[in-house]
DNA sequence: ATGAACAGTTCTTATCATGAACCATAGAGG
DNA sequence: CCTCTATGGTTCATGATAAGAACTGTTCAT
């Protein structure tokens, strides 16, 4: 690995870490308007784009331990935004669904999230925009 | 905004959020080997690529409130990895520096971080790789 | 039936997040 | 030389998050 390579790698690392903070911090900003924490905000967004989700899948999406997720769902349920529903087919699994209020909040926040991400990538050249999703998915799926 | 646009935006949002989790979770994985939390790991990495840093700059880089950063620096200092040093020119500011042990840990973890990020982007076509840093920086700097 | 695997919960401990109040220092202007 | 204001950090209190271990129920294959 040459000097130039190292430097480039270091800059890429800085950039990617900065971007990641930027993206996840959005949930903070956006949630604040609804008096939600970042995690609660991401939770309702994750649910609304999937309609209803298993706890275990939520854990994977949000990178949370199951014990941790239990607490988050507790707090968000107490806030009246979501509810748990047992799967009658397999009574071990529980689905998370939005309440009516939860749906409203989630619609608003998720809309804001996608709007901001859109604004972010809007600065990029058109052909890069088109391939960006694919590129990012490819990066992540490993 | 058309239907197709909306769908594309939604997928992009999922992808970017997934990538961000992936990137920041790295600090978790890598830190675990050294019995460090994700934040402590990112802290020492942030210091080693900048040699010494003001508290206030660290807060910006890591998206932390100053009170929060104070605690993190406390804990990491207690672990023996960093130390604070007052700026004699302006006695309000304090710089964070690595101890000898901190430098070793930071070198190892930072190397691992860049290696993993490199592996991530290695899957991408060459011309995308070349422009990626620039693209990501442009996305973030707004 | 029995036992292994799975999905969630609960508990404990340390860490992190946030805002408000606070302290010390620096840099004006009068 | 004094205020006044701004700045950089710390401290404190409270709630939220992280991680692991032990536990409850449920399913499924012997």
UniProtKB/TrEMBL annotation, chains A, B:
Origin organism lineage: Bacteria, Bacillati, Actinomycetota, Actinomycetes, Streptosporangiales
InterPro entries: HTH_MarR-typ, MarR/SlyA-like, WH-like_DNA-bd_sf, WH_DNA-bd_sf
Occurrences of domain HTH marR-type (ranges): 9-141
Protein name listed in UniProt: DNA-binding MarR family transcriptional regulator
GO MF annotation list: DNA binding; DNA-binding transcription factor activity
Transmembrane segments: none
DNA-binding recorded as keyword: yes
Keywords, in A-Z order: DNA-binding
Superkingdom to which the source organism belongs: Bacteria
Keyword presence, DNA-binding: yes
GO biological-process terms attached to the record: response to stress
SMART domains per record: HTH_MARR
Organism: Nonomuraea endophytica
């Amino acid at each position: 690995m040459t000097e130039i390579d190292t430097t480039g790698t270091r800059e890429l690392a800085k950039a990617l870490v900065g971007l990641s903070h930027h993206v996840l911090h959005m949930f903070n900003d956006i949630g604040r308007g609804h008096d939600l924490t970042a995690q609660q905000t991401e939770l309702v967004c994750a649910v609304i784009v999937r309609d209803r989700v298993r706890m275990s899948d939520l854990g994977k999406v949000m990178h949370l331990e199951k014990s941790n997720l239990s607490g988050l769902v507790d707090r968000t349920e107490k806030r009246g935004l979501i509810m748990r529903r047992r799967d009658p087919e397999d009574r071990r699994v529980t689905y998370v669904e939005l309440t009516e209020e939860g749906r409203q909040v989630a619609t608003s926040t998720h809309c804001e999230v996608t709007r901001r991400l859109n604004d972010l990538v809007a600065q990029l050249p058109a052909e890069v925009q088109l391939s960006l999703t694919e590129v990012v998915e490819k990066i992540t799926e490993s």
